[in-house]
Amino acid sequence: MMSRNEKFNLIIQLSIPSILAQVTTVLMFYIDAGMVGSLGAEPSAAIGLVEPATWLIFSLVSAVTMGFSVQVAHFIGANDFPKARAVMRHGYVFGLCFSLLMLLIAFLIGPRLPIWLGGGTDIQHDAMVYFLIFSGITPFHLIEYMSGAMLKVAGDMRRPSMMAILMCVLDVIFNYFLIFPTRTISLFGIELTMPGFGAGVAGAALGSLLAFVCVALPLAYYAIFRSPILAWKQDTERFSWRWQYIWNALKISAPMGLQYLLMNGAQLVSTMIVAPLGNVAIAAHSFAITAESLCYMPGYGISEAATTLVGQSVGADRRDLHRSFAWMTVFLGMIVMAFMGVVMYIFAPEMIGLLSPVTAIQDLGTSILRIEAFAEPFFAAAIVAYSVCVGAGDTLKPSMINLGSMWLIRLTLAYCLASQYGLRGVWFAMAVELSLRGMMFIFYLFKRLRKT
Prior knowledge:
The chain is mainly α.
């Protein structure tokens, strides 16, 4: 029987590496945005215009991965390691096929996407180039995310986290040479010529692509060949294809995928609401989302620990652990993100200032970040409670909560407020919606856990 302190320590042990991984991943986008932001408002707006579309593709890949990693967590919890490895094999095959389909769709819609989103003619070309190059990451994102997810549910949080940090470092290095042209820099009073390709927006996307490639392949190698639990060489029976694993994955992933499709579709609609407000508003909107990500990534780190612990508890048929881990992770997430909300409110000017030297962008970005800061605790409740449900294999109703809240509350309110209050009105709508969504998830989780 685990004590409360032992459960809390276990949550922390699983959360910290995951939080570091989440934060470093966001830092990669933060660095991209900051480097491109130094080039001016138009390149920043070009990336900001198509970012929701790139998130959509990545989210769908993540949903497919989750359908298999949840099954692996359940089998590991039941100490059935051969079946866990079998599901893992199915996950790679199915996931790679799906990611290649997403890549094909991205290449087909890429040339027209900036026009559909309402971007001005001055940013349409850069937006298209960024989207097409960044879409090339898709299969490598699947490999990286699938490998990391499998290792995490097997209890190895450290290695995926360290690789995420490495990816961030590599992204900085690649971007430094790809975004900027050859230039002279001063280092300790010595003038040095620093080579560069001067690719601008395209360089930012290419740098991220190379960073993903350099991390995805070694991580997959370790998961497949070296992991004590998951290495395929431990299997003594010949691999056989079982459609039941695919069907089980689809039952978990399909509601999540539909949710991500409609949630990120809502983000695209939100971008269409923001686009007529001008390049400054587009850039400020994009930068504020990137800056806010640093504050809510701890919540996503705790949510990954929640998925792992709840999934293994369900697999072991330990309902007491299921309930206690659920509530402990939700309340820990709310406390951590309440603190991060305070940090975001106080340091909003500095967070935006690092991303753009343009005063108008800095002022607008600061004001909307401070609006959003008040919603962070309830945003945490929504993030972690949803992951608790995913760990238990319950994705349909939580997905409906997310979708209903996003489409019926956020977009409706944002559309009504944008014309009068501009971007500040859009972000006020976001803060209201996130707070209400968090309350709905707490209520849903309370009802659900009473029945278990």
